[in-house]
Specification:
alpha/beta, Rossmann fold, nine-stranded mixed sheet, 11 strands, two-stranded antiparallel sheet, globular, single chain
Length: 263
């Protein structure tokens, strides 16, 4: 099974104190520590496990600048077979639709059975997977937390739905799946693995290689633009109720009734 996994280089929120720049148009990006998007890491692990079970190969792809190559090498050290960097000045400022269009052009250059994305990325919008599937006219499932791949024509996919319930679907190949965290436990990437892929050549494809008109993506083609960033005002904080368990429950019920939460 040939699997393409879309990954993204993002600021590591566990390693950074995120601040808004003076103009309020972006976050301060100087000196930020970057890593692979968490959801994408689960997607790569799932792809590797499927490949090891049924055969085939795993390719990781990202849209970004030269520094984005580091997340490709990190996922190749994890076990992906190949990496592809999609980089061009024309791609700068692309919105979700633009990113999906760039990825679509790369997908059509290959012969993939399944395309994975993380369930969330894109500043939390989680939109690229669905857009990519629509552009390719492929079946799509989001919030995927279980995959049974035993057939070269279809796979069984489990989705997390409302109320903590599980939904199972049979999906024909090729398809696009957006992977949820918790589907697996991503493996540790050691120094030996990183050194092993340090000198592996990673091809870079630009707008010309992909047959994309420069004005159809990037800032010129973006329909959605971020014009303002702000930090929400801090609330007054939580009030801790004291007393025995029965006293706390009685007070909690009382307050909920007063505020109309329960009758």
């Amino acid at each position: 099974m040939e699997i393409l996994v879309c990954v993204k280089r993002v600021p590591d929120t566990s390693e950074n104190e995120i601040e808004i720049n003076k103009d309020g148009t972006d976050i301060e990006r100087d000196d930020l520590v970057y890593s692979v998007n968490e959801w994408d890491n689960y997607a790569v692990e799932e792809a590797i496990q499927i490949r090891d079970k049924v055969g085939g190969s795993v390719t990781v792809v990202t849209v970004g600048d030269d520094e984005s190559e580091e997340v490709l090498r990190r996922e190749m050290a994890m076990g992906a077979d190949k990496g592809i960097l999609l980089s061009d000045d024309a791609f700068n400022g692309s919105d979700g639709r633009g990113i999906a269009a760039i990825l679509k052009a790369e997908v059509e250059k290959g012969n993939y059975d399944v395309i994975f994305t993380g369930a969330l990325a894109d500043d939390g919008a989680g939109q690229v997977g669905g857009m990519l599937a629509a552009m390719l006219d492929y079946p799509y499932a989001s919030l995927v937390n279980k995959i049974d791949a035993t057939d070269d024509k279809k796979i069984n996919v489990g989705r997390e739905i409302e109320g903590g319930n599980q939904e199972m679907n049979e999906i024909a190949l090729p398809c696009v799946l957006s992977i949820q965290t918790g589907i697996n436990e991503p493996r540790y990437v050691g120094i030996r693995g990183i050194r092993k892929v340090a000198s592996v050549e990673i091809p870079t494809h630009g707008a010309g290689d992909l047959g994309i008109a420069a004005d159809s993506v990037g800032e010129a083609g973006a329909k959605v633009k971020c014009t303002d960033y702000f930090v929400p005002e801090m609330g007054e904080g939580a009030e801790m109720l004291e007393g025995s368990t029965d006293e706390i429950l009685e007070e909690l019920v009382k307050r909920l009734k007063e505020k109309g939460g329960i009758k």
